[in-house]
Amino acid sequence: MSLLRIENVDKSYGDEDVLHDVSFAMETQDVEVIVGPSGSGKSTLLRCVNRLTEIDSGAIYLNDEEIHSLDENELRRRVGMVFQDFSLFAHLTARGNITLGLREVLELPKEEAVAKADDYLDRVGLADQGDSYPAELSGGQQQRVGIARALAMDPDLLLFDEPTSALDPELIGDVLRVMNDLAEEGMTMLCVTHEMGFARSAASTVTFLDEGRIVERGPPEQLFENPEHDRTNAFLGELSGLH
Ligand SMILES: Nc1ncnc2c1ncn2[C@@H]1O[C@H](COP(=O)(O)OP(=O)(O)OP(=O)(O)O)[C@@H](O)[C@H]1O
Ligand SMILES: [Mg+2]
Predict the structure, then answer these.
(1) What residue ranges define each of the domains in the chain, with the CATH number in brackets?
(2) In a mutational test of the pocket of ligand 1, which residue from 43, 56, 239 has the highest number of ligand atoms less than 8 Å from its CB?
C-alpha cells in the first residue's frame, strides 16, 4: 500500500489545461522533489493533494483511501503544507501560530498545546522565539515556524511549495537544514523546490513536470547525470546556470 497514490489526474482552469494525466505513487519515508518551469502546474498538483484545489478527473489516495472520502479537516491534519510565503498569522506569536491548529483541530488542552508548540520550536532551532510575532522574525525564522506548525499536527505527509524561494540567500541554509533533518528522520515529504543540493542529498525521487505532464521521474542521480529526455536536460541546465 502506497502512502500517496495519484492516478491519471487532470485539472483545467477554464480552457487552460494545467495537469494532464499525472500519475505517481509515494511510499512512507519517500522524499519526492518536483521541478519544472513556472506555470507547469507544480503548485496546482500540491494543492490537489490536500484539496485546496479540486481535480477534474482521476483519483488521489492517501493510505488507500480516496481523499474525497475523507473529512477535509482530517485530510489537512494528515497532509501538512508549508507555503512559499510562510502564511503565518501576523497577529499571533510563533507559539500561537502553532497552538492554533493543535487547539482547534486536535482539540488539545492549552497546556498540552503550548508544550507541544515549544517542543517543535526547539526542533527547528527557535526555542527562544516562541513569544515573537512574525514581523519580528527573519524570513528564514518565519519559515521554520511554518514547518514547526505543520509538523506539530503529526502529519503522514508534508507538502512543501518552494519553501525557500522567498528567502534571502543567507537564510536558505537554515530552512534546508531543517528539511534535511526531517528527511533523515523519515518524514514523508513531497517538495516543489529548485534547490538542487537538497534534491541530490535528500530526494528518493525527482520528477520533472512540464506543461502539466510528467516528462521524467527517477532517482536524483539518474535525472541529474543521465536524463532520458532533452527537455529535462535543458531545464536542469538552466537551473544550474541560475545558481
Ligand atoms: N486559481 C487559478 N485560477 C486560474 N488559473 C490558475 C489558478 N491557479 C493556477 N492557475 C494557472 O495554472 C497554471 C499552473 O499554475 P501553477 O501555479 O500550478 O504553476 P507552478 O508550476 O506552481 O508555477 P510557479 O513556478 O510560477 O509557481 C498557470 O498557468 C496558472 O496561471
Ligand atoms: Mg508554484
Answers:
(1) 4-242 (3.40.50.300)
(2) 43
**Which residues partner with 12 through β-bridges?**
17
Q: Say which DSSP state 230 is in.
A: H
Ligand 1 mean position to 84 CA, how many Å?
14
Beta strands in 14-167 (DSSP E): 16-26, 31-35, 57-62, 65-66, 79-82, 157-161
Is residue 142 within 8 A of residue 168, CB to CB? The reply is no
| Averaged pLDDT score across all residues of the chain | 96
Contacts of 107 (CB under 8 A, 6+ apart): none
What is the average per-residue pLDDT within 37-44?
A: 98
Helix (H, G, I), strand (E, B) or coil at 191: strand
Total-model pTM:
0.96
Contact 124, 148 (CB under 8 A): yes
| Chain position carrying cell 492549552 | 110
Q: How confident is the model at residue 23 (pLDDT cuts 50, 70, 90)?
A: very high
Per-residue pLDDT at 60: 98
Residue of 20, 34, 40 to test ligand 1 pocket, by largest number of atoms within 8 Å of CB = 40
Collapse the DSSP code of 10 into the 3-class scheme (helix H, G, I; strand E, B; otherwise coil) and give the result: strand
Mean pLDDT, residues 27-31 taken together: 98
